[in-house]
User: Fold this.
Amino acid sequence: MKTKQLIKRLPPFTLTAVVTALVLYLTLVPKPLPDNDIEWFEGADKVVHALMMLAVTGCLGLDYLRKYGKRELTAPALLIIIFVFATGVFGGIIEVVQGWMALGRGEDIIDFIADCIGALTGGFLSLVLWQPVHRWLWGKRK
Assistant:
């Protein structure tokens, strides 16, 4: 089965659910990945936070496009803004929960800022890539 057909056939919001579950696992489990000898650059965890929230927002946009956007040739900007806001709140909740759970991780305002930057970037990419992805999924409209 081609990738496009597989993506179109997935149940509604499957991509968002999988990415959200992965983000929750990576942020709320004490040691989600095995130790390794890789030397990361300073602030690498902030980049990871931004990428995770970019993925959540991007999947929300893609899942909406797959389910409801066949006839919407332009991105629903207000809805994308709501997705960005919701993802930012999600990132904030994760930070608070990390502090409450005493996982050896604490809440960090810089992580939250990285989450918000990732959510904003995901929203921007959703707006910019809406039409190319729409054409890829649904073909050209006559």
Q: What stands out?
A: The mean pLDDT is 90. Residues 109-138 form the longest helix (30 residues).
